[in-house]
């Protein structure tokens, strides 16, 4: 597999991360995941906007001048990823002797990009998935796509061990988002999701859904939903760059809508698929 | 520099971390720092107890059978670190294609140890330091020495840019601990520090101080101290494996005890030094 590493496209086996890389020592980096359909990047401008904003938030410099889009396209091409692929992009604060504060003087960031084939989860889109709920033990800036992800790892593992596809975090009694997805609910034909802010990632797919709702005349509203309100919810789905729109039919041990996928969820899935078909 | 990497002692330049290492991708690892005085490890049993407990907490297996103490001693010896040194130990969940949940089947952990010379901060011990206060934006399990440290990095950098040695975190209005130190205060000849629990690391030096207090008949108590109480505090110091006992003479723009180091702080520094001399 050919990957991009600090200015060059090389075989992945030749990528050597230093033990002094601040990604390895401190989780001190930012990442993005972009979906490619038929070699076309989907919503890359949104992804790179967020990526650059995040780098700025954590003050990682020296990584903003790169033409990431061009590298992504080259990786798709040279790895012969013709259909369904994802791009993984990670930038860390670089290599320096271990000290918590930023290296002084600054060192070049570590820049890594990889493209790989994915297998769309057709059956999960069709049949829906189970989720579990767990207290949100992550840090307080979930709007930043940081690689310091250990609390998410621990939580999603609990999901995996409980036969669930995703864990949805509960903060101050309200359901927020998943470990790597956004979370939407449907009540009285209205889409409800947690408000943007520091507690959740501003998901690109969430933004796409918001646009689709406008086109389809479906009401989209940001609102706090407490766990005690969950039994009154008609439909639920999780959203993500790779996840797309995945129906949720079970929360912990409770079936949603008797395990049947709701009409709004199906409508949005169709609209999303049409959008992709037109790419 | 000779280091330990996955079973071998090799030159550091030959350590190649994979871009698929879960330390690099997810900050999914645990670390420890141990102080060596004259080639003798200080309180290594306490450090390894915590280390093994932490690995268990995050369910990283396959790293518990190693004789870390022996490796540490070999690294000190072979790197000719005769006087003041520190051991850095990091274990990650290993190398696997990027997926949030644990690799299935499990993969061997990545185990890395490094020994390096340190230069004791004699002037700071003597003259004291400034600290700043910031809201605690870290994750909710600060008792675990996780390498997912980006929120700490961002906070300590603010300290560095404000001419301060450390940032002390404020949680729900109470001062808790530093980004890489414990925090103690003295009021009416009594040592006060934040109670053990999920909000702070159970510091080994904190434990040593607790023992020294017992020996010196100084009252040591765990108590919540709000930021508004700080002006009534007589002495403060930060604690850590490398930091040892470092007096604090300034909090933000306010001098503590007119910038003079208090008698209890000096007494504990002396007692600590005697303990080290007897090693």
SSE arrangement:
Two copies of one chain form a homodimer.
Chain A: E1 2-5, E2 8-11, H1 22-26, E3 29-37, E4 40-41, H2 44-57, H3 68-78, E5 84-92, E6 110-117, H4 122-127, E7 129-135, H5 150-161, E8 166-171, E9 174-178, E10 182-187, E11 190-193, H6 204-215, E12 219-222, E13 235-240, E14 244-251, E15 254-255, H7 263-277
N-to-C SSE string of chain A, H for helix and E for strand: EEHEEHHEEHEHEEEEHEEEEH
Broad structural category of chain A:
alpha+beta
Given the C-alpha coordinates, what overall shape of chain A results?
Answer: globular
Instruction: Classify the oligomer.
Output: homodimer
- The termini of chain A sit apart by 26 Å
Strand segment count of chain A: 15
The share of residues in helices of chain A is: 25-40%
| Count of individual helical segments of chain A | 7
Largest interface (C-beta under 8 Å): A-B, 52 and 51 residues
User: In angstroms, what is the radius of gyration of chain A?
Assistant: 19 Å
* Strand fraction of chain A: 25-35%
The average pLDDT score of chain A comes to 97
Main β-sheet of chain A, in a few words?
Answer: 9 strands, mixed
Low-confidence stretches of chain A: none
């Amino acid at each position: 597999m050919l990957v991009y590493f600090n200015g060059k496209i090389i075989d992945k086996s030749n990528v050597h991360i230093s033990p002094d890389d601040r990604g390895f020592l401190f989780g001190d980096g930012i990442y993005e995941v972009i979906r490619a359909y038929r070699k076309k990047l989907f919503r890359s401008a949104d992804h790179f906007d967020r990526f650059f904003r995040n780098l700025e938030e954590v003050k990682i410099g020296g990584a903003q001048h790169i033409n990431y889009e061009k590298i992504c396209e080259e990786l798709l091409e040279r790895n012969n990823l013709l259909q369904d692929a994802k791009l993984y992009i990670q930038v860390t604060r670089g290599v320096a002797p271990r000290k918590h504060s930023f290296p002084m003087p600054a060192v070049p960031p570590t820049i890594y990009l990889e493209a790989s084939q994915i297998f769309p989860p057709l059956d999960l889109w069709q049949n829906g998935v189970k989720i579990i709920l767990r207290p949100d033990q992550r840090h307080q800036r979930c709007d930043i796509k940081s690689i310091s992800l250990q609390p998410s790892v621990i939580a999603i593992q609990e999901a995996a061990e409980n036969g669930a596809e995703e864990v949805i975090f509960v903060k101050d009694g309200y359901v927020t988002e998943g470990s790597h997805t956004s979370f939407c609910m449907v009540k009285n034909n209205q889409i409800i999701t947690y408000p943007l802010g520091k507690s959740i990632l501003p998901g690109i797919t969430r933004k796409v859904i918001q646009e689709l709702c406008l086109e389809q005349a479906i009401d989209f509203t940001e609102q706090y939903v407490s766990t005690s309100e969950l039994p009154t919810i008609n439909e639920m789905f999780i959203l993500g760059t790779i996840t797309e729109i995945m129906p949720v039919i079970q929360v912990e041990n409770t079936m949603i809508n008797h395990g049947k996928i709701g009409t709004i969820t199906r409508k949005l899935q169709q609209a999303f698929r049409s959008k992709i078909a037109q790419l």
